[in-house]
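for the recovery benchmark. tokens below, seq after
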């Protein structure tokens, strides 16, 4: 039995020049196909997979109807994570010799699993089992594909319900089965953004955007990551680009509106503070804080800024509370610690001020200003 209908693009035909030419050199030396295969095996054993492919291709050129040469090349291609080409070789090998090339059917199923084509992987593993119902590798690969399919469905449900921590665990399990192909990287990036980890998501987003620069979903995810790192200008560009690709993309439309509103409101608050219109500044900072309670980095800045406005009108206790809120959102926010220490000095809470100045002095021992403030507090 050969492959049943699993809707593969590849048919049981000898490979065209488009595949073979990728590996085959223009000049053939005086070796037999078997000798080329042996030379390929040596390269494969030393993990020189690309060179092994070249040598197996020479064997195929001489003996294009020998299944094992395609099987060997598919193993090298699999090691290179060239899953689509590997699948094509597996297809050819298995159809030339269904009984002898069962391992190629299993390898092809592995490729399909890595490509996220789980139904096809299950079907292909079943084809191998029709030839040998007890073939353990086929049974194992079928089970892996079925599990990966379920994990993918579960992760999407969790993402839709914003169950980010659960989704992170599920995506990690999916990663263990499939490796890290694009569709898994996309899920991982989406989960990290959902968890508010914009900086951590950026490397994944950068990798995805290189190969999918016009994909609205990827543009949206990267836009969210940029937004979380408070790079509003670039976030706006990404959401706008996503809408150019898909004008009905509601999530991008909503985020674009939110970021523009937050940017303009914060700018108004800063302008009011600069003009010493402190009550207006407090009002605008407060309005801005209501726009996205989940944006910890931005809200830490807003609380710290509002504290500055509050202490300017001698509402020092309220200002102190805002500094505490800012620090609880971002414990690395130096400016909030400095402002809290100064307010505590103003309120004659010297012990509290000393604690903050000591922390700041430890973090920056070369700062004469912090050393002086610490002496003053003591």
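predicted aa per position
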């Amino acid at each position: 039995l050969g492959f049943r209908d699993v809707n593969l693009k590849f048919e049981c035909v000898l490979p065209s020049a488009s595949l073979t030419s990728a590996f085959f050199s223009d000049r053939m030396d005086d070796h037999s196909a078997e000798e080329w295969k042996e030379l390929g095996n040596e390269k494969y054993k030393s993990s020189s997979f690309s060179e092994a492919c070249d040598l197996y291709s020479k064997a195929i050129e001489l003996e294009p109807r020998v299944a094992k040469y395609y099987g060997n090349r598919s193993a090298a291609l699999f090691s290179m994570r060239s899953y689509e080409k590997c699948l094509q070789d597996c297809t050819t090998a298995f159809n030339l010799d269904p009984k002898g090339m069962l391992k190629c059917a299993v390898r092809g199923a592995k490729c399909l699993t890595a490509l996220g084509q789980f139904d096809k992987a299950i079907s292909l593993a079943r084809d191998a089992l029709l030839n040998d119902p007890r073939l353990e590798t086929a049974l194992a690969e079928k089970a892996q594909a079925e599990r990966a399919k379920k994990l993918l469905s579960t992760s999407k449900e969790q993402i839709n319900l914003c169950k980010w921590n659960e989704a992170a665990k599920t995506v990690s399990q999916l990663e263990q089965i499939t490796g890290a192909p694009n569709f898994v990287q996309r899920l991982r990036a989406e989960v990290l953004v959902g968890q508010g980890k914009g900086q951590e998501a950026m490397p994944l987003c950068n990798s995805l955007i290189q190969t999918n620069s016009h994909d609205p979903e990827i543009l949206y995810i990267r836009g969210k990551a940029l937004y979380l790192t408070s790079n509003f200008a670039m976030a706006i560009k990404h959401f706008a680009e996503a809408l150019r690709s898909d004008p009905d993309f509601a999530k991008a439309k909503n985020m674009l509106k939110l970021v523009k509103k937050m940017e303009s409101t914060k700018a108004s608050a800063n302008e009011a503070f600069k003009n010493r219109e402190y009550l207006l500044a407090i009002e605008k900072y407060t309005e801005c804080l209501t726009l996205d309670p989940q944006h910890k980095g931005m809200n830490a800045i807003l609380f710290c800024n509002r504290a500055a406005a509050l202490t300017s009108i001698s509402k020092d206790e309220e200002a102190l509370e805002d500094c505490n809120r800012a620090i609880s959102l971002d414990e690395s926010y130096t400016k909030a610690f400095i402002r809290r220490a100064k307010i505590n000095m103003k309120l004659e809470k010297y012990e509290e001020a000393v604690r903050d100045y000591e922390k700041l002095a430890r973090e920056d021992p070369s700062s004469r200003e912090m050393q002086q403030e610490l002496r003053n507090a003591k």
